[in-house]
Amino acid sequence: MLAPVVMVALPALALLVYLNVDRRQREADFITQNAIQLARLAAADQERLVEGARQLLIALSQSRDIREGDLAKCDATLTHLLAQYGKNYVNLGVTDSTGAVLCSGIPGPQITVADRTYFTLAVRNRTFAVGDYMIGRRSGGPSLGFGYPLLDPGGAVRGVVYAAMNLSELNKSSTGEDWPAGVTLTVTDRHRAIVARHPDADHWLGRTLAEDRVARVMASTAHGTTEQEEEGEARIVAFASVTRPGNTGLTVRVGVSKNQALLAVNRGLYEGLIGLGLLALIVIAGVKAASERLILRPISQLVEASQRLAHGDLGARAASSTTVPELSALGKAFDHMAATLEERDAARQRAEVERQGLERQYRQSQRMEAIGQLAGGVAHDFNNLLTVIGGAGDLALRHMDEAHPARPDLEQMQRAAHSAASLTRQLLAFSRQQILQPQILDLNTVVAHTESLLRRVIGENLQLVTRLAPSLDCTSADPGQVEQIIMNLVVNARDAMPDGGEVTLETANVELDDVFAARYPPMSPGSYVLLAISDTGMGMDQTVKARLFEPFFTTKERGKGTGLGLATVYGIVKQSGGFIWVDSEPDNGTTFKIYFPRTVRSRLPIPGPAEPPQSLHGTETVLLVEDQAAVRAIARRLLTAHGYTVLEASCGDEALHVLQQHSGPIELLLTDAVMPGMSGYDLATRVLEQRPDIRVLFASGYSEDAIVRHGILEPGLHFIGKPFTLQGLLHKVRDVLDAVHTRDTLAH
To answer: Helix (H, G, I), strand (E, B), or coil: what is residue 128?
Structure first.
């Protein structure tokens, strides 16, 4: 009587053990992958914290109080900032080149930080440095130090600005409320001293880990996993180095108890064995009444399904039709287990698809940023070259007869230079490095001003419809750039409807909530003014939409477009603090929705063009400062040809020397904004200290200058962009000489 029972029990036992082993392996793989993901996420959190500290120190290094060495103002500034960021930092300070603390957010006796790692690394490498775990000499608490060198004009280190991060806040930000239970997180410095720990942070903080298997594995790779004994139990440990910005020396470890993680699997094995034992007892009691067919066939089906499941067929089911309740329950349990595995695998696949989508978005964002930086740099260099080409051409044409045989060639050269200048302006717009002059404006007014021009542009076979919201709120933007956006998008719509159609311009006040913003990254929730431009044209597919805003990408025939129109729109919108979204499908038209941040300030009229000066000639003396010799020579020739006396200098120090040597009056300082050594802004400040009545005109090829904040020209400063024409330079010089003094603006 026992033989049938053994025949039934052994396959079931083998199946149970096999499934348990397979489940344990799957669970272990799942735990390992989760640990790796947690370690990478935690390392990314640390990178964001370190980057935040780096940005804070860079901003402090640019502070006038710190650069000028006014210790009293420096103490006041750091005390104010520490009160503002006190949750995240326990102290902020500035040292001299020997490590002696000059000013600090916490008052106290004279101390030195020459032995701190962040100080020695910042001085040695002359760049941002991350220190080690330390106890603050003034704060008295545990902290993590950061240092950023202060360089003199010659590039030598004259001091270090430092910040001490509050490790309590570091612990909170490292895990958060949704950190998985039973999973440990350890963040160590380059000497394996613990700077963050979850759980039991108070117990572990500051302790140094011994050199273990994780440390030895990390010597050869920046991230990975291993298993080792920790606190008396086997753990799966995933680790990742914090590598940005630069070599931080920080390492993240995520530990998962292997026994705890597999507890549910083991419990399932025990429950299965108990159930199998009970089943064996029931079979023994009823073996005489049961037929072999009712027992062996369901078990055979169950074994076959388990083999299919073992080979990766997650759709395998027992599908038993036996009337034996125990075997039917076992089949249902197997089916439930298989269904659970199938659901888990589907969830894993969905998560993988989502992760790949996020990675594509991130790579596209990085690609657009890199293209923008390249485009801006190329445009800046071309602007200097075009200034020389255009200026030389203007001078040559002024002294050449109308009948001269070379005049048509020179005029063609000038037209090409103007076209190239237009291209560089579009490149600067895409790279968000153009100069904006924002105003408080009503988009309805801007649309109304451009409507007549738009109707001429689109032609008679297209219909232009405007739907402007009444009581539209204002936004802060450059009206000329907004008109450029409208023009580029309407021209794009016209080209998409060669057989006619309708272009619609709409405005509205909109509120974006958190749900909407999360659905359409990188939008942010808030109040916006919407400008929507729609057409009934051919539309576009997903492949075209993915590259829509890349510079030089176009679907038009060769020679029909530059591929910079939509790239320019993208750059202007981003630099204005807004967002742009495109909705399009093939044969269903296209809608561009642009969201400008709403402002509550009252509307201001869009100013008309300024009155031209009476004469472009002058007798004033101009101090011309430009590090590019060719640009300087062209500007000098243009000015002297119109009666101005020009004093030249190739850098700030030379300009100050010329200023001291020249005893006569100097009415205008015309300086490049970005030069090696002393910047144009610093030069203007020092010149105004010696000659308060002098006027100042800045020149530059792009907006990453000290006189510009986020690409927006500060009110009261005079600026001319490169490349400039003969008439443009002369008009601007005359305007500045006749304008209100810039002293107050520079002083603040």
So the answer is: coil
DSSP 8-state code for residue 711: T
Q: H or E segment at 474?
A: strand 474-477
Predicted TM-score (pTM) of the model is 0.37
- Residue 578 in contact with residue 597, Cβ under 8 Å? yes
Beta-bridged to residue 147, according to DSSP, are 129, 162
* 656-712 pLDDT per residue, tens: 999 999 989 999 999 988 888 888 889 999 999 999 999 999 887 654 443 454 344
Please choose, from the candidates 261, 288, 233, 296, the residue with its C-alpha nearest in 3D space to the C-alpha of residue 7. 296
Beta bridge partners of 241: 251
Two structure tokens written together for 520: 């359409």
- DSSP label at residue 556: S
Structure tokens at 664: 């006569």
What is the token pair recorded at 136? 């603050």
Residue 683, C-beta contacts closer than 8 angstroms, at least 6 positions apart: 625, 652, 655, 656, 669, 671, 675
pLDDT tens digits, one per residue of 221-272: 777 888 877 766 778 888 888 887 777 888 888 888 777 666 666 666 666 6
H-only helix segments in 441-594? 443-458, 479-495, 514-519, 542-546, 565-575
Contacts 24+ apart (CB under 8 A), 272-280: 272/16, 272/20, 273/13, 273/16, 275/330, 276/9, 276/12, 276/13, 276/16, 279/8, 279/9, 279/12, 279/326, 279/330, 280/5, 280/8, 280/9
531 pairs with which residues across the strands?
Answer: 507, 594
Q: How far is CA 122 from CA 26, 99, 100, 125, 138, in A?
A: 47, 11, 14, 5, 21
**372-376: long-range pairs with CB below 8 Å, 24+:** 372/430, 372/431, 372/432, 372/571, 373/431, 375/427, 375/428, 375/430, 375/431, 375/551, 376/427, 376/428, 376/431, 376/432, 376/433, 376/702, 376/704
Q: Kindly give the pairing relationship between strand 526-535 and strand 501-512.
A: antiparallel
CB 237 within 8 A of CB 252: no
Write the CB contacts of 248 (distance below 8 Å, at least 6 apart in sequence).
46, 47, 50, 130, 242
The predicted-structure confidence for 540-594, as pLDDT tens digits, reads as follows 888 887 777 777 677 666 655 566 667 778 878 887 788 888 888 888 889 999 9
C-alpha closest to that of 376 among 326, 428, 340, 331? 428
Structure tokens at 70: 């006014």
Q: CA-CA distance, 129 to 245, in Å (whole number)?
A: 9
